């Protein structure tokens, strides 16, 4: 473990053999790391380990030098849920039954048993197991059925033990921060004032060249290319300002700048639609509802989303969005003309102010020389006559093409609502 | 690092400070871990580290006991891309310019520069940096612009160094396995014959109780609750059969079993629609296109997906799917009756054989006592008169409710195509 430069270090240990088989992706590591970073910690590592006690013990030993360690998972009722036991051993204390906690969990389980009809010895065993707490630890009230733990390790870190289901982990977070050993630690952490710049359509090599000519002393700069967006994060050491560096980066690539404060494209699109008082409707083929779903993912989106049509077949394009069959015949279902007709059709059928049309070859089959896999046509049209169109060839697999298409459509829509 | 029990151990080290700020989630760790498991390795850890050389070096040291280590990321053109340098130092060899590789990358970059208009010194610098190779390493041809590496560490693991973009990493995987040091290692790995069972609507505590009464000697059992599905993975040591345990688990909870061989719900729905020669259309409100998008995510889905309507507003429900305005008025937009009308409307408008309707209160606002946040109505109807309906109250945040709704709809659709 390297020494800290100005900020105390924290680490995250995520348990779950299912995360090592590829069955599911870990959502807790990134979430906890982000929140630790916002609190001012430098996150050194996120470790994912299986449900094997020795591997979890090794992982805790590896991060012993951190000031704070957060674990997720392994608090459930099954035999492979061993985190409380391993953390107790790491802290050199025994596990003890916490009787008030057992009674508390029993109440939760009883309500659940009445609702689902599952009951009996399996439940009692689960109850007892989940109420075992390392001696001297602070127990955090369950959000689901598993309590969390805060354990101070002598000559080691404060360990916060949280459950694996993201909803339970996130729900327990405020209580974890309020627990005395964590609150004491936080009081000594200098506030982070990190800053993010977001670009669209700018290659990473250009940012690298720009950065070589700038003074980055005391600022950790990380760049992250995420499909078509490039995010540049500036994390200063305590007392260092990021303003001069951010201003220089903004000026160097202004044409590609999406936001200078890290605001997401989705938030900008939502704000733009609200500002204009517009509603949007979509006509999607290859993206199959991903754009509509992304727009609707934000709370309150009913104020500016009317809906959309997933017109995957040609017949559906004609029947539901009024795309003329002879236009499809003449230009092909994947063509700038049909993208425009999808946008217009969606706008008109839903009575929206702005329409977005997407049609493309997502692959892996269906490509031709003229219209290869990855060729996608986009069009955004507005009731007041604006037409924005693009027809790039996008790289990658079927899901890459569909995701990049959704990105591209969002950026075209952003231009329309900003214009 | 604990000793291996029958299977050689492998570890994954993922680099990228952006993965520690929560900006994006790591997709490579789970993918590589899954493929290593299928090859017969026991994956001990996935470590995510920032772009700090000392932290990466510590991580490599931590997994020195593994037979194989796969790294991802840190091969790009920016100054924070340091993996090749750190791995060379871990192996105790210098970095050297690989001139044929430099020329090869120059060709790729030139084509890209012509297409995008970005060119000049930034590009030359990137080219040279990406062609530096540890002495004695096997270089793997770039899929994007960064070559991969296979480095044999004296008294240590074989380290496979892959680029961070998932498309490049996955594209380079076959070449990495074929490289001599990896191929030699693989020749000595006993084949894994793991098995997965998938359940729907079964609590984890029930599986835990069942497992306590069964003989699991020589089989690592992991359970993973993923929203409403429970996956049980059985990973045997070499020479151990999972058949008896799997049969017992199948018999114990047959009513909740989705598949006995790990086949996903999505694959079963696709196969069921194909077998019946049916097409499907969707009428979605709160899920906003997530169900259509999920159905279309599979290659070849045009054979059985007609499309769908995202009818977010009441006006759209009536105009696009023929839901009677007075029905919405009388029963409410979120009601079993409107779910049925959405299913019927989608089926009729698209000329499909089966229709799926979803309408619910995703939250965080809009809930009432009678119809709280999380109350969602589902209906599946078929041209030959089958009607399946449900109206559960689903827990969690807005995205949880939307994702669980999509799951529930998939399972209802699966029942219809199996029925």
From TrEMBL, chains A, B:
<dbReference type="Pfam" id="PF00994">
    <property type="entry name" value="MoCF_biosynth"/>
</dbReference>
<dbReference type="InterPro" id="IPR036653">
    <property type="entry name" value="CinA-like_C"/>
</dbReference>
<dbReference type="InterPro" id="IPR050101">
    <property type="entry name" value="CinA"/>
</dbReference>
<dbReference type="InterPro" id="IPR036425">
    <property type="entry name" value="MoaB/Mog-like_dom_sf"/>
</dbReference>
<protein>
    <recommendedName>
        <fullName>CinA-like protein</fullName>
    </recommendedName>
</protein>
<comment type="similarity">
    <text>Belongs to the CinA family.</text>
</comment>
<dbReference type="InterPro" id="IPR008136">
    <property type="entry name" value="CinA_C"/>
</dbReference>
<feature type="domain" description="MoaB/Mog">
    <location>
        <begin position="11"/>
        <end position="183"/>
    </location>
</feature>
<dbReference type="InterPro" id="IPR008135">
    <property type="entry name" value="Competence-induced_CinA"/>
</dbReference>
<dbReference type="InterPro" id="IPR001453">
    <property type="entry name" value="MoaB/Mog_dom"/>
</dbReference>
<dbReference type="Pfam" id="PF02464">
    <property type="entry name" value="CinA"/>
</dbReference>
């Amino acid at each position: 473990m390297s020494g800290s430069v100005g900020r105390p270090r924290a680490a995250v240990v995520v348990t779950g053999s299912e995360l090592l088989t590829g069955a599911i992706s870990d959502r807790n590591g990134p979430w906890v790391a982000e929140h630790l970073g916002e609190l001012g910690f430098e996150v050194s590592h996120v470790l994912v380990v299986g449900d094997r006690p020795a591997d979890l013990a090794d992982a805790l030993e590896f991060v012993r030098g951190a000031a704070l360690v957060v674990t997720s998972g392994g608090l459930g009722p099954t035999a492979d849920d061993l985190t409380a036991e391993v953390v107790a051993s790491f802290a050199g204390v025994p596990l003890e039954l916490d009787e008030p906690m057992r009674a508390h969990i029993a109440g939760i389980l009883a309500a659940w048993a009445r609702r689902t009809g599952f009951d009996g010895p399996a439940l009692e065993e689960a109850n007892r197991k989940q109420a075992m707490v390392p001696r001297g630890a602070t127990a955090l009230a369950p959000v689901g059925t598993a309590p969390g733990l805060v354990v101070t390790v002598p000559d080691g870190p404060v360990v916060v033990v949280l459950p694996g289901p993201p909803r339970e982990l996130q729900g327990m977070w405020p209580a974890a921060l309020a627990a005395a050993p964590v609150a004491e630690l936080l009081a000594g952490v200098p506030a982070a004032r990190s800053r993010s710049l977001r670009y669209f359509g700018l290659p990473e090599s250009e940012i690298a060249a720009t950065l070589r000519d700038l003074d980055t002393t005391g600022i950790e700069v990380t760049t992250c290319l995420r499909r078509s967006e490039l995010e540049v994060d500036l994390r200063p050491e305590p007392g260092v300002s990021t303003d001069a560096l951010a201003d220089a980066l903004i000026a160097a690539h202004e044409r590609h700048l999406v936001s200078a404060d890290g605001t997401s494209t989705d938030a900008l699109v939502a704000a733009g639609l609200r500002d204009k008082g517009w509603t949007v409707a979509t006509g999607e083929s290859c993206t199959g509802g991903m754009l509509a779903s992304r727009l609707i993912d934000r709370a309150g989106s009913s104020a500016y989303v009317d809906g959309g049509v997933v017109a995957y077949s040609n017949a559906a394009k004609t029947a539901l969005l009024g795309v003329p069959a002879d236009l499809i015949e003449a230009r092909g279902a994947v063509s700038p003309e049909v993208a425009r007709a999808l946008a217009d059709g969606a706008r008109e059928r839903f009575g929206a102010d702005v329409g977005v049309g997407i049609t493309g070859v997502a692959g892996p089959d269906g490509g031709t020389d003229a219209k290869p896999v990855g060729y996608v046509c986009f069009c955004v049209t507005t009731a007041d006559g604006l037409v924005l169109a693009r027809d790039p060839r996008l790289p990658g697999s079927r899901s890459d093409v569909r995701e990049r298409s959704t990105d591209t459509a969002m950026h075209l829509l952003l231009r329309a609502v900003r214009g």
